[in-house]
Amino acid sequence: METTHTINQKKGGWWALSPLAVFLCLYLVISVIVNDFYKVPITVAFLLSSCYAIALMRGLSLEKRIYQFTAGASNKNIMLMIWIFILAGAFAQSAKMMGAIDATVNLTLSILPGHLLLAGIFIAACFISLSIGTSVGTIVALTPVAIGLADKTGTALPYMVAIVIGGAFFGDNLSFISDTTIASTKTQDCVMRDKFRVNSMIVVPAALIVLCIYIFQGLSLSTPTQIQAVEWIKVIPYLLVLGTAIAGINVMLVLLIGILSTGVIGITTSGTDASTAFFDWFGSMGTGITGMGELIITTLLAGGMLEIIRYNGGINFIIFRLTRHVKDKRGAELSIAALVSIANLCTANNTIAIITTGPIAKEIALRFQLDRRKTASILDTFSCLIQGIIPYGAQLLIAAGLTGISPISIIGSLYYPFMMGICALLAILVRYPRRYS
To answer: Which end of the chain is more exposed for a tag (fewer CB within 10 A), N or C?
Structure first.
């Protein structure tokens, strides 16, 4: 059987990107028209656009078209995400069953005053993501707590989840151990420390502005007058998850440790006999895993459709169109920003988008004498911006899967990703930081 690498890419045109347009029309446009984002299931939108993408391919038999689609769906990055989704579902549900979420929520409410609750959640998400270098791990760890806090304080659930996602992308963009930082610095041949310095000058102002917004909006927020006593032993699973994640342990091993700890503590603290508690634990894990079914199907369909866009030359076509009229440094930096943004729209993976466009960005930087530290920052920041706001990206999908809400409902409250994008665009337009422009 032919592999993905032996099938040559074609020279694409706008038609190569049309499957993405079909998906956006089916899911976004129709949902906006009927004012209901649950009318069109995201799985159905991806199924129809995937069928269209397969039909669009030329020069291959139906069997080879389906194989190419399957090769994209079974990409190692897609499979890794699915394993994380499975473990995240099992951990979230088992933690809920044994009372870890309620205990953690009560601890948070007892520590943070009401007017600092929103700001506190944002700072916690920023710190954790900066420490562990992954937005997905941060969202998995904090979203269940955000659900509980939203319920206890009467805050809209999409808004509370958006705070976690925003903080998660702060660290994903800046962390020294983030995949995006590694990919952007390696493709641009610059030192991580230097990229961090330039990047922080661009995004820290955005984080401070958003933090002030959360402090202001939290002034009217009050914690419940009666907070239940904190069951410290039931907080241990979350402390273990956060501690091991901050220590840099692989996110799947982190989740496995969390799952095992919920089982041990749940069995020892339950009022029933050990065998009943054991099977209740198994049942909760099964419920959590099956609850991720729609998310897994969506991820597979998205991976396959986006692979066909790549095969048909959609990404190469965009690269050519964006770079042919560049004349000065500002235009060169804007082309790099647009390049990685569109690649991210087509791949739904910010690391892959950077790896795909990084060599072209380096050529542009050499041609127009751009500072590679800034081009690395542009690649990382704009890829995180797009990844943070697309409804079919892993971060919004897993947050939606854990909360049971539409990913679209979260987008309007994503203050940090949008503010980060505004600051990054201004940095290009006004040539900031001046030293690196």
So the answer is: N
